[in-house]
Specification:
Elements: E1 5-10, H1 12-24, E2 28-34, H2 40-47, E3 52-54, E4 60-61, E5 72-76, E6 81-82, H3 84-88, E7 94-98, H4 110-116, E8 121-128, E9 138-145, H5 152-178
Parallel strand pairs: 1-2, 1-5, 2-3, 4-6, 5-7
Antiparallel strand pairs: 7-8, 8-9
Length: 201
Amino acid sequence: MAKLRITLVGSRYFGAATLARLIEEGVDVARVVVPAADDRLALAASTAGLEVKVLDDPKVVPADAIAAGTDLIVAAHSHARVSNESLARSRLGGIGFHPSLLPRHRGIAAIEWTIREADPIAGGSIYHLADRMDAGAIAAQDWCFVKKGETARELWERALAPMGLALMARVIRHAQEHGTIPAEPQDERFATQAPMIRDGA
């Protein structure tokens, strides 16, 4: 069976942790796309001897950033928008991890809104990258309880980041074995937004 060929787009701790997990899963990481040369993911990719592409515009991933022959684009803590032209260069499109039970808490501050709304349950979703932010079909989900008094950072570190890595590995394995990515449309009736929370808001 041919190895799944992946272009990883991401940054920081979660990007680097995802890279380590992908290497563990035995896939072919063709290229790593980062917002800056000194980013933690960029340094991890260089250390692993992988090709690193630094974006000219850290907000957009252009088509030429995607490695030729890519089977799947994986976004891991990426604030750059993966364009439709970029997705078209990948056989299976692209997936990302969002730290909420989508369609609830779509947006950049999902965990903060989980805490602010006093949600008793949090979760994570692997979703298909699409035109609308965090609105693509769901490939996999899991959930956890929120501890009383827990901060967004504590919830992320205790439960949601490890959950994201485990879900990503599950979907990657499915793609390796079946050549497809599961896709369950999101139910728009339950969609809520999680915009950045300003201090004092």
